[in-house]
Amino acid sequence: MLTRLKFLTAGESHGRGLLGIVDGIPAGLEVAEDYIGVQLARRQMGHGRGGRMKIEKDRAEIWCGVRYGQTLGAPIGLIVRNKDWENWTRHMSVSPVDDEIKKVTLPRPGHADLAGVQKYGFDDIRNVLERSSARETTMRVALGSVCRKFIEDLGIQVASRVIQIHDVKDDSEIPDGIAPNELSQTADASPVRCLDKKTEAGMIKTIDEAKAAGDSVGGIFQVIATGLPYGLGSPMQWDRKLQARITAMMMSVNAFKGIEIGGGAEGAEKLGSEVHDEIGWDGKNYTRHSNNAGGIEGGMSNAQPIVLRMAMKPIATLIKPLRSVDIETKEAKEAHKERTDSCAVPAASIIAESMLCFVLADALLEKFGGDSMEQLKAHMKATAKY
Using one digit for the tens of pLDDT, what is the confidence trace for 280-317? Predict the structure, then answer.
């Protein structure tokens, strides 16, 4: 549901690497591999990550679309090489191999395994699981970092924090006056990206208990964006509404199972007079006495912070596998085991930040336009309302 930007990713979890292209970024945006690397490092953080993160030290190489540190207005190509590829050269060879490679025939409940082999007619689940792996989100974060740099140059910041792991909840509010970048720094200092230290300890304990039991846990995280003008998105068609575009992008991520905007489901239990955000005037700008709408009204940004809550299910690959059926013999057996995380909620919050950056960058280009950053900034200066 992007209208001005396009992006594609390619690559398998244990293949040579991941490829990505983002098209539509104006000329003149300063972007560097080190900037992208900061976001990739954030994605690899978090208590409960598995052995793969000890192998990979993800770094994106800018392959094209940038010259002398600035975008050219051309498609931007990135590559992230998989260090683990050296251990998988036979299993993931592009060319046929002489020796027989053992097939994966035990689908994991909750994963793409069974539906994938049924859809494509494969007799080896690895043909599905390699692409459906969350390893693909590495490239989403890399490409999303270009979009992040784009919106940051326009005064917009995006951040996140974890507010629940399994049944352990952080009910604390975001401190007043804290900027998103500062919020991210505070959250990143926690191994579970939680602001409350007491709750952090409970989350870590829950993750450790799940890991010891061969299980996994999910959770909930909050994503916010500030500095937006009025009118990103549109009420005129279903696919131009900002909340629809955000939801589509977020729900494309592995294991994301729910999204709330602003007050979300809690609003269903309240009266209209308790939910809708009253309007004020400070002598210069319109103000709001609350932000239950989460920064979006009528399919458009309303110059208030965008506030999202995302729910992530527990990871489907378990050390203590669930019951399954062998697709070759039809015998009842335990599901296939792969190297896995016991919790990836902290990492998922970083991925969600990148997804929001895609949508906001696209909506800004749709509303204000411009072939270069200079043109875009001039258009915003002349017409943007805050």
Answer: 999 999 999 999 999 999 999 999 999 999 999 999 99
The C-alpha angle with vertex 43 and arms to 126 and 140, in degrees rounded to 5, equals: 65
> So what's the pLDDT on residue 327?
98
259: Cα within 13 Å, side-chain hemisphere:
24
Distance CA 67, CA 113 (A): 41
CA dihedral sign of residues 82, 66, 226, 235: negative
Instruction: Give dist(CA 36, CA 59) in Å, integer.
Output: 8
**C-alpha gyration radius of the chain:** 22
- This prediction has a pTM of 0.96
| Domains assigned to the chain | 6-383 (3.60.150.10)
Answer whether 132's CB lies under 8 Å from 112's CB. yes
Whether 178 and 59 have beta carbons less than 8 Å apart is answered as no
pLDDT at residue 53 is higher than 70 = no
Please give the structure tokens belonging to residue 184.
Answer: 């991210």
189: its two tokens: 């200092």
Residue 315 phi/psi, 5° resolution?
A: -60, 140
pLDDT, tens only, 333-349: 999 988 789 999 999 99
Of residues 266, 252, 165, the one with CA closest to residue 207: 165
User: How much is the pLDDT for 54?
Assistant: 64
CA atoms within 13 A on the CB side of 170: 28
